[in-house]
């Protein structure tokens, strides 16, 4: 009689709770057997999954560090305050992080443009009514005149 009550009430109770408790009947197979593998194949499969997960995590950490490097570069360029989170991400990646090649090329071009703008000729080109070629010719002529005068000088 107790078996009958347990069977009737227990089945309904299981349905009511959604089967939260897992009771393995004695005839149920192990995980490996359920997936159609031997125990050794199942262990190799689990190990492979773990290795793939570690590779994904390492790749993700590398990408995060690259992004942090880009952000820190722009913070340096525009003199913004540094972020400790970015520094931590770069250190976690092992400090082997470089700027992406496309960004490095863009930065090199920007640096060249800034160097040109900071030069004397770059500053003169900002003045609107100045002909740079004419200025170069005048400067060359002046230098040639100075050389001729120093050749004719008796003290030199």
From TrEMBL:
Keywords: Exocytosis, Neurotransmitter transport, Synapse, Transport
Pfam families tied to this protein: Synaphin
Compositional bias ranges of the Basic and acidic residues kind: 21-31, 50-68
InterPro entries: Synaphin
Subcellular location: Synapse
GO molecular function, one term: syntaxin binding
Residue ranges of the region described as Disordered: 14-68
Record bears the keyword Transport: yes
Family: Belongs to the complexin/synaphin family.
UniProt name for this protein: Complexin-3
Natural source organism: Lates japonicus
Lineage: Eukaryota, Metazoa, Chordata, Craniata, Vertebrata
């Amino acid at each position: 009689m107790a078996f009958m009550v347990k069977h009737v009430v227990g089945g309904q109770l299981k349905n009511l709770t959604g089967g939260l408790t897992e009771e393995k009947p004695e005839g149920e197979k192990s995980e490996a057997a359920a997936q159609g593998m031997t125990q050794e194949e199942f262990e190799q499969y689990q190990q492979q999954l773990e290795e793939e997960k570690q590779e994904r995590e390492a790749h993700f950490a590398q990408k995060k560090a690259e992004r942090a490097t880009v952000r820190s570069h722009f913070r340096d360029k525009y003199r913004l305050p540094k972020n400790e989170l970015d520094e931590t991400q770069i250190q976690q990646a092992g400090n082997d992080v470089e700027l992406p090649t496309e960004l490095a090329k863009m930065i090199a071009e920007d640096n060249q443009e800034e160097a040109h703008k900071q030069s004397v000729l770059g500053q003169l080109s900002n003045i609107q009514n100045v002909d740079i070629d004419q200025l170069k010719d005048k400067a060359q002529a002046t230098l040639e005149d100075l050389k001729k005068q120093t050749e004719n000088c008796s003290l030199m």
